[in-house]
Amino acid sequence: MILLNAYLSKPSTRKALSKKPGQEGFSLIELVVVIAVLAVLTAIALPNFLGVSDDASARSGQQAAVTAFKECQVRKARGETTGDFTQADISDFEISSLPSTTTLSTVVVKPTSTKACFTATADGAALNAVIAYPKTNFKFPKFYISDSGTKSCYSGDTGKANTHNVGCTATGGTSSWGTAAGTWR
């Protein structure tokens, strides 16, 4: 009897005897609950991750326009009246300059790709405006910086899922640019 009590009092024996048959691993219900929770979290998070690249594209278009405009302002501050800005290599936008008399609402089709910082005038040279125009029409907003530095934008087609107004407060049309200019955000 003493041997039996000694055997039963050992921690390894108690552990082995306290386990019930079939208690190893997870039950089917526990696994289904975990999979369901993961599916819900994926459904919530996936749209946010998909929009990250479009948001980055819009931000790169904005930044490229700002960089081109600043380059032209530096040339003007140095007294230059000619010269082109350096084209940023971005995939979704083309950066172009426009005569300062051009307004964003009049730019319906892709402008001629020009990088000139200045337009010749009777008084010398006027600083050009800069536009970031999306390579895929209406997918993204077009971003504009006037010769005075004012930033505005027109959003694209609302049919382009979640990309038509990335970085722009304006709302888009259904198959064209929006009807009201917005501000950058």
Topology readout:
Layout: H1 2-9, H2 11-18, H3 28-77, E1 93-98, E2 118-121, E3 124-127, E4 129-134, E5 142-145, E6 151-154
Antiparallel strand pairs: 1-4, 2-3, 4-5, 5-6
* DSSP, total strands: 6
Order of helices and strands: HHHEEEEEE
Strand content: 15-25%
Enumerate the strands of the largest sheet in spatial order, edge to edge or round the barrel. 1-4-5-6
Q: Count every helix, treating DSSP H or I runs of 4 or more residues as helices.
A: 3
Question: End-to-end distance, in Å?
Answer: 83 Å
Shape: elongated
Q: What structural category arises from helix and sheet content? A: alpha+beta
Description:
The chain is an alpha+beta fold. The chain has a domain at 29-154. Helix content is 36%, strand content 15%. The protein has three helices and six strands. The chain has helices at residues 2-9, 11-18, 28-77; strands spanning 93-98, 118-121, 124-127, 129-134, 142-145, 151-154. The strands form two sheets. Strands 1-4-5-6 form a four-stranded antiparallel sheet, with helices on one face. The protein has a two-stranded antiparallel sheet with strand order 2-3. Strand 2 and strand 3 (124-127) form a beta hairpin. The longest helix is centred in the N-terminal third of the chain and has 50 residues, at 28-77. The protein is elongated. The model has no long low-confidence stretch (mean pLDDT 83).
